[in-house]
Amino acid sequence: MTDLGQSNFLNVQSPEFYPSQLVTPNNPYGWSAPEVWFREYGNHYSNEEPLYQHDPFSYAQPPVVPSVNSFSAVSSFYFQQLQGKFSEQTPSTPEQVPAAPKEDKSIPFVRNIINRENERPLQYEGESNSRIAAKQLLERAEDAKRANDLDLAGSYYRKALRECPWMWQGWLDYAKMEEEFGKVNRCQEILLCGLTYCPYNEPLLMRAMKLEEKIGNLTKARSLLARLEDVSPEKGWRMMLEGAELEARNGETQVARRIYKYLMTNVPNYGNVFQEACLLEERCNHIDRAITLARRGIAGNPKYGPLHITLIRLLQKSSMDHHDLGIARDAILSAVRSVPKELRWKIHLEEAQLEERAGNLELARRAYVRSVNVCPNNLVYKVWLSGAKTEMRLSPGRGGISDNPTAIKLLNRSLEDVPHRKKAQVLLDWARMEQVFQCMKSARDILTRAREENPNEWKLYLEAILLETRCHNIKEAIKLAHEALEIHVGTGRLWQVLVGLYKEIGEEAQWKTFQEAVLQVPKSGEVWCEGARILMSKGDYAEARRYLEFSLFFTPQYGDSFLEYLRLELLENGPNVDLSTLERMCCNAEPNYGALWLYCKDGPLTSAQEAFQKGRRMMTDYITSHEAHMPQAFVSCGPVERVVLPLDCLGQHDTRHLSIDDQWHHIFGYQ
């Protein structure tokens, strides 16, 4: 066997990654990759020292190498150890935080199975002996992993990979396990070792590249793509596409555009290449350019449904100023003629939502009818539910749903057609609609019924908690939160709302609740954001920054973390601080939830950049107007609390004074 410990695999010191544009007969677009890109990196493979010095197959644990993290290197957070106290001596970075141990009541049973399997010899049938043996060892490794026995699982993985090192799934599962337990350096070495045997395997390459990006080693992430030098675009386009997204996430927009241009020219038959290029232009607020790319992609891939939906939304967004939806309607007709039959219902559903946003109730109803006629039976409940929401938004009765028989019929029809495992979602939205019209008793009854039928759906408990907080029943909300956490102890959203509720009890109780939450869900960005809010209210901005960095690292889709980081920067550095890096991170993450975040979105078509800029304007205006009293005025309750104050997340305030539209936005967000 090759001595993997002496490999110099992928230890590349890169030259300037992107030289100036080079126009050659083989590169007429003036793009220095992939031809020059692969060649420049490929020249450096055999000239450097090895990346690691020990054998990954060794049973001994590797030495701990300090991890590089470009995002969190500015901070040194002291992570609370699982024994129960915050340690002030042990620095940790987010990627080294281990997952909370899973409570598995079947562990003794699993251990018995493992012990019996150890006594049985490996069976060889059909395939080659080494491959069969490796598969059986991987199964034993999974059993040990479910039993939370990391050492035993690791030994099985190593034995399996010794038997059959070309089995890429074993390398991938082994690396995932090590990363879950916070051993990022070990995970990195396992992936790189696996790539020596499976050098062109896409899942391994993708995982390794994302890991290198996560720990801040962009040079190494880029060098991984150099191995695609001899791979045709038809086989390596997915990895090249991932490389374009990597560049876009790190601010190299022009480079990403060149990669997309290369792919659109060489592999024009893949619709998702055009889809990602459109999304990049949309994030940069270049709507006209995105529309052009979408039309070009549809011309070559007329059956690719997501691209049609993207074009419809882009056309609606571009026509918002002059209120002319004719072009968008023409795009809908073209999409219906082009996409496969099983996707037509989505086009009609998008048409109905477009008409709803334009206030055209009758046209929306007709589109819903067309959607129902072609929708599969297992998905038709979504159309009924969306139709009920449209009826309540555009023709609400004074008494809420009880005064709207059409909405009631649609909701009942949705409950009849919905699969059992999705029934909770219908009841959840029904309860939310009741809350919009202040029918709190009906909403409670619906949520109570839903929890009895679906006790494993944590979102029902969360909505019940938020309902009580909106009614200022804080004690009942705390009681419900504790009941929910007895069942869903590993759900970060429930811990987050509980920490927020304990503000009404006192700061000391709130901080203790936060500490307990961190122990149970150490990788919940929502919980870390709540901790940052507590520290910001005390004026401890340095520690709050570390907490927010953890929040952004673990849960980038939680929009409130970006707004809290924005608020922190404004408080510390003033309204003229450069926030371009934070804004770019926010645009790339595209957050989709968080009460403050949804408040900053003016509609479902609002981009992440527009929401971020609106949040900055609101916070800057408030800070400027209260500059003489900062920071106390900023963190105290006042008339603008609902806008700029983070704590309570808008969900824990009286909303009865809001209009119907504001109530809908507040409770549903923009879906």
TrEMBL record:
| Entries under InterPro entries matching the protein | HAT, Syf1-like, TPR-like_helical_dom_sf, TPR_rpt
Q: Does the keyword Repeat apply?
A: yes
List keywords of the entry alphabetically.
Answer: Repeat
Q: Which SMART domains does this UniProt record tie to the protein? A: HAT, TPR
BP terms from Gene Ontology = mRNA splicing, via spliceosome
Q: Does the keyword Repressor apply?
A: no
Q: What is the top-level taxon of the source organism? A: Eukaryota
**Which named protein is this?**
Uncharacterized protein
- Species annotation: Planoprotostelium fungivorum
